[in-house]
Amino acid sequence: MNTGVRQRRAAATRTKLIAAGLALAERTGLADMSVNLIVAEAGVAKGTFFHHFGDRSEFLLALHTEFHDRVFAVIEQSIAGMAPGRDRLLATANAYLDECLRHRGVRALLLEARVDPTIIGAIASRNKVVIERTSPDFAAMGWVHPEPSAAMWNSAVVESALLELDAGGHRPEVRAALAQFIASQVTHG
User: Which residues form the DNA-binding region (predicted)?
Assistant: First the structure.
């Protein structure tokens, strides 16, 4: 078997393991997601898991990355062609919140995992990207401090996702409150 075929098979197996983890996340919490359960769901041998992931923490990082890559793709699609500003911020927030609700189990699992040092680093990196992507929206609205505003906005959106997750669904009043936060232009220093 040539190297290209082996690499494709290895990538397919890794993808299968991640898909199994995402599916399990919808049914089980972090404490119940064992390597044995993951490999059973994926239909592979236990050693295969450790060939692709050094440990459970590395696997959780892969789940975190896959979930957020998918969310970012949905967000990018929902804001394509929109000019920076309030409407784009709200579209971004709503797309994020909707995806978190669509994948409640995954989001809940990742919340449980956020005490893991590997996940903490990934969260910090992702937040930095979000701030870079949303700062232009605050600048377009004339906010004096776009980067800190984007950081606080990101925190508010994540907290909104937690509120909706706890409530078990969409909360219009939470989304209205988010919109209210950016309803007026702030121009003072």
Answer: 34-53
